[in-house]
């Protein structure tokens, strides 16, 4: 019995002449409405290509979409509370800290802040919870991961929702537009940053974006700046790398205001700082510590960052773990339902059992390290190669094992930029839903907590990874049925 299939929102294949015209229109629409990226090959700071996307919105079960939307404020609350529990973070990560130098360095920074203090108790979370519908369980959503740092693609997802409205209209399918949910992810995330800016309370203070030295996903970042200016014209956004912050930043006065050059910073928004290569020297770590100590509201703070690690997510799936943070069963129950099997690979009997399961039937699992940014997970026979080498070593504690989720198949036209001409073909794909959330609070109080939009990311059914900026996936939007 094969993987179940979903019907497309319109009959395919589309007539070839109509298809070619529509593809040309759609790719131009994408570029002209901010669904673009800088080319990774032959980088040109003045160049722009459309971000990979699928031509048609992909069908998605409405009941599961609605459930994920309802659930997001509870997910926000859960990870906010987890982030403020030193004991849970330490117990979850202690084995990983012995073998993963990057996570250990982050935790060391966290302990320095606990010991020496921070001038700002509030944190801003711009989260995204990612899901696949699991075909083996009637397409019930199962969580792939929780993103607590640099939750990207809000702008391009918002633009793609509008693109697909245009495409359906061009196909004469206006009667189906009501099945495309409204998406204001960009406005929602920018609204979260502006709410934190208002709480900070200094009208001349700026919002600081921490960025990579070279940004390929430029539309997604710049449109946040443009939207902030549109929503509140008096607010300035500045962009700096961690290296530039190290050279330009200082703490001012007893309240430890963060100054970057001539600017006082109200909010620090990290779009970089989640992989080891983004800290090439100790100067970048010093810059991160300086910001953590400051009065600026961080997005994310170091404890929010750690709460999003794979190992913490695995620990939350253990029996009775959720109830520590969500004692209301009406909240804990629905969250427990989205977890798939998550297994520790620590050097104990449970870890030994998980290793044996993975080596015996690797196609059932995904091996996940403590890394963000795409391209890090291990699948299929590669699990045997990787885990076989470290099964008797503490190094295995740097990973978790997850049951592989099998989403339903459907067909779509995937468009990718090429040399002078876009490439497109009708292919089997699977889709991953992301729900964005905003939370602001401290250890005792949550001031803001809401769901603010969605993203659909689609990949070839034969592909393991799905990151758009990393080159594996394509942007999409849900057609609810």
Automatic annotation (TrEMBL):
Q: Which domain of life is it from?
A: Eukaryota
Q: Which residues bind substrate?
A: 128, 221, 457
Annotated residues that bind Mg(2+) are located at 145, 147, 372
Q: Which Gene3D superfamilies match?
A: 3.30.1490.50, 3.30.1490.80, ATP-grasp fold, B domain, Glutathione synthase, substrate-binding domain superfamily, eukaryotic, Glutathione Synthetase, Chain A, domain 3
Keywords from UniProt, A to Z, are: ATP-binding, Glutathione biosynthesis, Ligase, Magnesium, Metal-binding, Nucleotide-binding
Q: How is the cofactor bound?
A: Binds 1 Mg(2+) ion per subunit.
Official protein name in the record: Glutathione synthetase
């Amino acid at each position: 019995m094969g993987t179940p299939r979903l019907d497309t929102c319109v009959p395919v294949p589309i007539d070839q002449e109509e298809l070619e015209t529509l593809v040309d229109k759609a790719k131009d629409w994408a570029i002209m409405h901010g669904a673009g990226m800088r080319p990774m090959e032959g980088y040109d700071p003045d160049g722009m290509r459309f971000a990979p996307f699928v031509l048609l919105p992909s069908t998605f079960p409405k009941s599961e979409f609605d459930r994920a939307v309802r659930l997001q404020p509870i997910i926000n609350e859960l990870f906010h509370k987890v982030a403020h529990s030193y004991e849970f973070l330490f117990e979850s990560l202690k084995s990983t800290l012995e073998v993963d130098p990057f996570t250990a360095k982050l935790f060391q920074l966290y302990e320095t802040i606990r010991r020496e203090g921070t001038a700002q108790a509030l944190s801003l979370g711009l989260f995204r919870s990612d899901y696949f519908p699991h075909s083996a369980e009637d397409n019930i959503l199962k969580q792939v991961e929780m993103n607590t740092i640099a939750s990207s693609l809000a702008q391009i997802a918002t633009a793609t929702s509008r693109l697909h409205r245009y495409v359906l209209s061009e196909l004469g399918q206006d009667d189906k537009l009501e099945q495309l949910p409204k998406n204001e992810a960009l406005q929602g995330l920018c609204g979260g940053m502006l709410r934190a800016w208002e709480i900070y309370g200094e009208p001349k203070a700026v919002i600081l974006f921490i960025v990579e030295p070279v940004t390929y996903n430029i539309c997604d970042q710049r449109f946040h700046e443009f939207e902030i200016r549109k929503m509140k014209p008096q607010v300035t956004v500045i962009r700096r790398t961690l290296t530039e912050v190290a050279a330009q930043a200082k703490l001012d006065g007893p309240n430890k205001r963060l100054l970057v050059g001539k600017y006082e910073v109200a909010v620090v928004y990290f779009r970089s700082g989640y992989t080891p290569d983004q800290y090439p020297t100790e100067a970048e770590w010093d810059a991160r510590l300086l910001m953590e100590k400051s009065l600026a509201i961080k997005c994310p703070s170091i404890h929010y960052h750690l709460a999003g690690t794979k190992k913490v997510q695995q620990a939350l799936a253990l029996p009775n773990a959720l109830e520590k943070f969500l004692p209301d069963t009406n909240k804990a129950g629905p969250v427990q339902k989205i977890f798939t099997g998550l297994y520790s690979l620590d050097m104990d009997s449970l870890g030994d059992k998980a290793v044996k399961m993975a080596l015996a039937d690797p196609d059932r699992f995904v091996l996940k390290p403590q890394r963000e940014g795409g391209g890090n997970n291990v699948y299929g026979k590669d699990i045997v190669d990787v885990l076989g080498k470290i099964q008797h070593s503490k190094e295995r504690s740097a990973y978790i094992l997850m049951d592989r989720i099998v989403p339903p198949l459907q067909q779509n036209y995937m468009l990718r930029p090429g040399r002078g001409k876009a490439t497109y073909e009708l292919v089997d794909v699977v889709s991953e839903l992301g729900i964005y959330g905003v939370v602001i609070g401290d250890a005792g109080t949550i001031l803001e907590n809401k769901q603010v939009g969605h993203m659909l990311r689609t990949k070839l059914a034969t592909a393991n990874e799905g990151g758009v900026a990393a080159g594996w996936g394509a942007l999409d939007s849900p057609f609810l049925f």
